[in-house]
Amino acid sequence: MYVAVKGGERAIENAHRMLAETRRGDPATPELATTQLVEQLTLAVDRVMGEGSLYDRDLAALAIKQSRGDLIEAAFLLRAYRTTLARFGAAEPVDTNAMRVVRRISSTFKDVPGGQVLGPTFDYTHRLLDFSLAAAGTRPEAPVSTTPLAGKLPRIGELLEREGLIEPVVPDAGDAPVGDLTRESIDFPADRDVRLQNLARGDEGFLLALGYSTQRGYGRNHPFCGELRVGRVALEYVPEELGFAIELGDVDLTECQMINQFKGSAEQPPQFTRGYGLVFGHAERKAMAMALVDRALRAQELGETVVAPAQDQEFVLYHSDSVQATGFVEHLKLPHYVDFQSELVLVRGMRVECGQVQAEAAE
Q1: Whose CA is closest to 314, among 187, 127, 225?
Q2: Is the bond leading into 189 cis (omega within 30 degrees of zero)?
Q3: Average of pLDDT values for 139-155?
Q4: What is the pLDDT, as a whole number, of residue 65?
Q5: For strand 100-105 and strand 223-237, is the pairing parallel, antiparallel, or unpaired?
Q6: What secondary structure does DSSP assign to 276-341, as a single string?
Q7: Which among 47, 65, 107, 348 could disulfide-bond with 225, CB atoms 3.0 to 4.6 Å apart, if both were Cys?
Q8: Whether pTM exceeds 0.90
Q9: What are the residue boundaries of the structural domains of the chain, listed by start?
Q10: Cα 247 from chain centroid?
């Protein structure tokens, strides 16, 4: 027999107390401050901000601490808190052309206008454990400035645009309505603005796997990293009482422009096409994966046959959200006694009927 455990409230209270004690760990160890997470685990904080869809490093760090380092749970906490906040308006579109760059690279040209800016990166490090980091209080021998570069850097895509070798960027009309994924459910086929919103707050691991699949033949992408930028941009807002834009502050963003081969169609000549990724903070892998998937989702628009999962809007957009996926998977841990009992009765009945049929067949 399957019976419900009595005294559930007390058990849950004890589970919460045990969770708090486990989260704290050994009391002899100094407690971790959220400022330490903000300053030293920046990539984890930035990922939680992106998937939590809320730009606030302090709150993201608090969510990481509360979730014991479970980044998906932390994004869930941040997303839930976000729903309690009042919305007073929408910011102006950020101008990434004016990004004050910390890092900017291109894999398509060796020498690019403005130069390659390597910035802070793991790309050229040996993947060996650095045991010196286990010693508290260690610092780099020579401090390096991380101040963003002033002045605009030209777009890599502009070099190809001059020769007509890449699809042009055609900006939308200034008053064109923009979808809002947080207020309206997705309708299919989804426009690109909604798709990009979905991907920007999607699970990095899921998008990484999909992006990888497109490179292995499931989406016919042959991509080049046209440009990857990490830096800071100004965020502006136009209050109704003023009628002009005021600067609210700066946000750190990672932007990726992927360049993809395109053999052309009846309407378009052979040329390179684009995939785009833009995410909060320093999140290169997420931005690159997002750009790969964005290009794959443009298959119908470019006259390509949809044959791969990464090209299927419904598959990608419905399954990329880590918070929704977590809720649906982890709800299986909750009581399903009634459902299982009904299934149990059904299977037992079917086995009896099957046994009777077999017995009759044997006779």
Answers
A1: 187
A2: yes
A3: 70
A4: 96
A5: antiparallel
A6: EEEEESS-HHHHHHHHHHHHHTTTTTTT----SGGG-HHHHHHH--HHHHHHHHHGGGS--HHHHH
A7: 107
A8: no
A9: 8-82, 96-119+146-168+183-325
A10: 26
Residue 214: which residues within 8 A CB-CB, separation 6 or more? 220, 221, 223, 292, 293, 295, 296, 308, 310
Residue 169 DSSP symbol:
P
- Scanning the chain, the segments in alpha helix (DSSP H) are 8-24, 34-40, 42-52, 57-66, 71-82, 157-161, 192-200, 204-215, 284-296, 313-319, 322-330, 337-362
Cα 202 to chain centroid distance, Å, stands at: 4
Kindly report the number of other CB atoms within 10 A of residue 246's CB atom.
10
Distance CA 238, CA 245 (A): 4
Q: Which two tokens stand for residue 163?
A: 């020769």
Q: Assign 2 a pLDDT band (cuts: 50, 70, 90).
A: very low
Asked if pLDDT for residue 6 goes beyond 60, the answer is: no
Cα distance between residue 266 and residue 81, in whole Å = 49
